[in-house]
Amino acid sequence: MQHDGSIVAFQQKRGGDSAAFFVPFLTSDMVLLDAGCGPGTIAAALAAIVGTAVGVDIEPNAIAMAYRLASYSGLTNLAFIEADMAALPFENEAFDAVFSHAVLYHQRRAALTRALAEARRVLKPGGVIGTRDADVGGNILHPELE
After folding, report:
1. Does the model's pTM come out above 0.85?
2. Burial group, residue 122, by CB count within 10 angstroms (0-12, 13-18, 19+)
3. Domains of the chain (ranges, CATH numbers)
4. Neighbour tally for 91: CB within 10 Å
């Protein structure tokens, strides 16, 4: 199946919308990790803002889709790795920012604890972590931005 640039742009826009609250905290010199990146739409959108974006996902099919998106987008500062977010294959303090979307609420308590500990381990001092997940009681966005 062939895709044209409009599909890539649409997917990146959807990805960017999912992380809009996080964008004000990002700069062009950052190295960002998208933990649980799925098909890579958010990582691709954020790669347009940061210096380097790396997406990880445990699902091989998601990583294959992410690589296709990356090749269609032409972004050269974007990479994807098949990995478990609860056992990240990166050095300590390797990232300036860590983001996850719609993945933490799928984790059982022990895996969630490990995933959050891993996010903190790979985050540089002074770095930022952003998450967006479902809350059956309502949506919570913090901090509130105009």
Report:
1. no
2. buried
3. 5-132 (3.40.50.150)
4. 9
Compute φ and ψ for 108, nearest 5 degrees: -70, 160
pLDDT digits (tens, 9 = 90+) for 28-61: 999 999 999 999 999 999 999 999 999 999 999 9
Exposure on the CB side of residue 34, measured as CA atoms within 13 A: 32
Q: Tell me how long the chain is.
A: 146
For the chain, how big is the Rg over CA atoms in Å? 14
Helix, strand, coil fractions of the chain, as percent rounded to 5:
40, 25, 40
Distance CA 100, CA 119 (A): 9
pLDDT in tens, 5-30: 433 333 443 556 778 899 999 999 99
Q: How far apart are CA 86 and CA 84, in angstroms?
A: 5
